[in-house]
Amino acid sequence: MARVYNFSAGPAVLPEEVLREAAAEMLDYQGTGMGVMEMSHRSKTYQNIIDTAEADLRELLNIPDNYKVLFLQGGAHLQFAMIPMNLMKNGVADYIVTGQWAKKAHKEAQKYGKANVVASSEDKTFSYIPDCSDLPISEDADYVYICENNTIYGTKFHTLPNTKGKLLVSDVSSCFLSEPMDVTKYGMIYGGVQKNVGPAGVVIAIIREDLIREDVLPGTPTMLQYKIHADNGSMYNTPPAYGIYICGKVFKWLKNMGGLEAMKAHNEKKAAILYDFLDSSKLFKGTVEKKDRSLMNVPFVTGNAELDAKFVKEAEAAGFVNLKGHRSVGGMRASLYNAMPIEGVEKLVEFMRKFEQENG
Ligand SMILES: *Cc1c(COP(=O)(O)O)cnc(C)c1O
């Protein structure tokens, strides 16, 4: 069996140990005689799986008791709608648009209320994070929305915006559990797990209890109300049971790795290997402002589309896959999520160096 170095932006590489464990339990989970996929979500065994997953996540992120953890479906995209439907009390929200995901979230929110753009980096193809220290936050804004790590463009908020006392709602899909976060700074944090935490099909929302209310936008479907999911322990209906089980295994793996401080150090080390090379390379260069660089997603170009394509092709043949950049940016993108080993980045840089010598 040959595993490749998978630099996909998502669905993305998962820890090999987790996949092996899941494979070993596929036919018989802990003596039940059945796999987790075949198991009732109302069983004691499954209740234990979801409870353990939540407890481990709470421990990893140090989630205070007044925040609920919800395991939801519909991808990050459904949150683009659920957030305004559930959180707009005054019908007003402010969006900081730093990429395609925030842009889509803003567009969706406009269906449900007044969604303002208070800052944007679209003028330079989202290659930086705007100064958010003194934005024209609306007096009556129900929340301020950000996409904390911009998967496509490779930028990250290293400083959270000054929301002037308003609630902060953050899409952390592509930086989830890559480093510690102070949950108390947010009203709500959410992420699709397929970038850094598990298989596609699960979204985790961490939401302050007082924001979970009955008085949502009239007509909000039952399934789109946070309260329904909170009141039913994420099991109002059949949850994405197998996906949650895998997330639980990733949480255990993260704990074994030393938790999120250790993960941060690991991720900083990996990213530095690639960024240092990009900064010294004559052929390759990074596309975003240095101060705003993401630890997770690293876009880069040669400046020549043909050479980019040649690189992607040769890299793939050498076992470095999914390096093609998003169609809106072009070039290349290497995603360095938690499960990407340091060795994968070292070998990639070695390969890039060789390519540079041959094509420079
Ligand atoms: C991938 C991604 C999304 C979209 O996720 P879906 O699960 O496909 O809806 C949204 N936000 C961010 C930051 C992402 O990386």
Quick overview of this protein structure:
By secondary structure, the protein is of the alpha/beta class. The chain has 2 domains: 17-256, 3-Layer(aba) Sandwich (Aspartate Aminotransferase, domain 2), CATH 3.40.640; 259-359, Alpha-Beta Complex (Aspartate Aminotransferase, domain 1).
Explain the overall architecture.
β6 and β7 form a beta hairpin. The radius of gyration is 21 Å and the shape is globular. The chain is 35% helix and 16% strand. It is built from nine helices and 14 strands. It folds into two domains: 240 residues, Aspartate Aminotransferase, domain 2 (3-Layer(aba) Sandwich), CATH 3.40.640; 101 residues, Aspartate Aminotransferase, domain 1. It has a seven-stranded mixed sheet with strand order 2-10-9-8-5-3-4. Strands 11-12-14 form a three-stranded antiparallel sheet. Strands 1-13 form a two-stranded parallel ribbon. By secondary structure, it is an alpha/beta fold. The site of pyridoxal-5'-phosphate has 12 residues, from α3.
Number of spatially distinct domains: 2
- Widest sheet: strand order? 2-10-9-8-5-3-4
Please report the number of helical segments: 9
Quaternary arrangement of the chains shown? Answer: single chain
Task: Please outline the helices and strands.
Layout: E1 5-6, H1 16-24, H2 44-61, E2 67-72, H3 75-87, E3 92-97, H4 100-109, E4 114-120, E5 144-147, E6 149-150, E7 155-156, E8 168-171, E9 188-192, E10 203-208, H5 226-231, H6 241-256, H7 259-280, E11 285-286, E12 297-301, H8 305-317, E13 320-321, E14 332-335, H9 342-359
Parallel strand pairs: 1-13, 3-4, 3-5, 5-8, 8-9
Antiparallel strand pairs: 2-10, 6-7, 9-10, 11-12, 12-14
Helix pairs in contact: 1-6, 2-6, 3-4, 7-9
Bound molecules: pyridoxal-5'-phosphate.
Residues 10, 75-77, 101, 147, 151, 171, 173-174, 192, 195 line the site of pyridoxal-5'-phosphate.
